[in-house]
Amino acid sequence: MVALVPIRKPARGIPRPLRPNLRGLTRIQLETFVTSKLGAPRFRADQIFEWVHRHRASDVHEMTNLPKPLRSLIDEHADLRRLERHGDFVARDGTRKLRLRTLDGHYIESVLIPNDQRGFTLCVSSQVGCSMTCRFCATASLTFERSLAAWEIVDQIEQAQDLLEQASQREGRDHGRSDDPESWPYRLSNVVYMGMGEPLHNFIPVKASVEIVTDPKGAAITARRITISTSGLVPAIERFSRDPLSAQVGLAVSLNATTDDVRDDVMPINLKWPLLALLNAVRALPDARRRDLTFEYVLLSEVNDFEDDAHRLADLVREFDCHINVIPFNPHPHAPYKRPSSNRVRRFMDVAKRRGLRVYLRTPRGDDIGAACGQLALEGESGQAPAAPLEEGRTT
Ligand code: SF4
After folding, report:
1. What is d(CA 190, CA 219) in angstroms, rounded to the nearest whole number?
2. Co-location of 63 and 154 in the same domain
3. Confidence of residue 3 (pLDDT cuts 50, 70, 90)
4. Looking at the domain assignment, is residue 195 inside a domain?
5. Best of 8, 123, 137 for a ligand 1 pocket test (most atoms within 8 Å of beta carbon)
6. Are 68 and 172 contained in the same domain?
């Protein structure tokens, strides 16, 4: 008998606008659009791509090196609108949650996390809501509305870059630095697809968004600094491992249990694709990608945080040359779990380390504004501004 899995069906698919949003076209797609739809020469595609992604133009009239008739054609046949900023929450630790409104009125969140003096990691959403029903995750409490289009994912990244560049320019003025982005004090160093939604459930737009933001004529983010997460959608992992994308970006598998009984409960997707199937799919990854593999393990008090769990975890993943991120549960009203005590966390970490695992304890970031891992649910209060230049431009 086929196991019933409580994965909610999408209410609607990605809206298909009559005019494509240029922010969601890869450079090759843009070339095709420019030559066949607009009848313009190929080199115009590079110029438009730079205007959209380097200068982040939202109006064709900003594209001053294009002839006016071409600008009119773009205006007629393409869309350049961006997501609307609809809230901006700043945590005590400097983590910043951006709430964005889609053109059809849905809300999504992305989180900008300071990770060293200059660098920030951005956690982006790939869907409006999520259908995966992981029980520790606040996003699962939202209705799954639809997957995001490529441009909506790209724009989350570019809106974060807007913020960092504005802050850098302010600092640059203060300290006499140049306008060269390389010398700016704040930069986006990593992008993780770990916000709202299951990225591999929305593979084609996710893949296009990676291609766009890594393009040297655009944001030029290094692909190795991008990580895509999955809750364990086995057919999608198999598809990912066959795709050239898997040779470029990292994969983070959300494991969160060491037995099927516990994982069935914590992550209902396990009812359909249990641990053995999941690990077999991971085994099929190209060798080069298996070296950069991460397993995520949300530690839930007295559910999956026993010393036996740490031993079983070692048995399950020791064949992979992987990192393991251990994330003590970030409490929220939508989940029946508790954060483990520091003693339990320490014991789990000690056993895992003794067993030779490369485990990293991830301390909560932005949990006072509902921005920490597993907390994104369009809730959260505005926190105090950090003592950093990013505090300017807050909209809360
Ligand atoms: S953890 Fe990820 S896949 Fe699971 S419900 Fe939350 S957003 Fe969806």
Report:
1. 12
2. no
3. very low
4. yes
5. 137
6. no
